[in-house]
Structure formats: C-alpha cells, structure tokens
Specification:
The chain has about 100 residues and is an alpha/beta fold. The chain is built from three helices and five strands, in the order E-H-E-E-E-H-E-H. Strand 4, helix 2 and strand 5 form a beta-alpha-beta unit.
Amino acid sequence: MEALRKSQLFKQVYNHRRSVANRLLVLYIYQNDVGFNRFGISVSRKVGCAVVRNRVKRLIKENFRLMKILEGHDLVVVVRPVAAKADFYQIEKSLLNLLDRHKLI
C-alpha cells in the first residue's frame, strides 16, 4: 500500500464525496486506475499535540498494513478528536466497520 502525499490527490478523493463515518473516523474512498491501494491520513490539531497525532497515525497505518483490502482504491482517513484516547483495537474495530460498509473487505 502506498501513501497519498499530494494535496491534489487528497482533493480528488474529497471531491468524489463517497464517505462513511463513525464515532472515531471518517473514511473517504475513490476508485483509482493505478491497480493498487493508496491511503492518506488527515489529523487536525484538534485531536491533540504532535505526540498524540503521530500516535494515532501510527495506529491507523499499522491497522491498514494488517488488513486485506480490495485493490484499486484511494482511501483518506480523517481522524476525529475522540480517537485521541482510542487504543489499537478500538481503531481496528472502527476501520473494519467503515471498510465493511464500503464492501472493501
């Protein structure tokens, strides 16, 4: 899985407006023509200080690494402030819920 790094790609995913949300996360999905998955994580300062934001990003990246997701999608995860207190398994449950609602797992 590759990372989305350019703001143009983030905007493309956001403009597609195919999203689902739960208490911890919002997931935006766009079907790409690349043939593999790319993902990005957006964490605002409202979530917490840099240490907390980086911890949440690491938890999300590790969960994505362990999951088998259908190929050919751009995924952007927007973290809500409540996720700052979540542990690995709560993030995993939240991501599985969102991906299942999109039929990607």
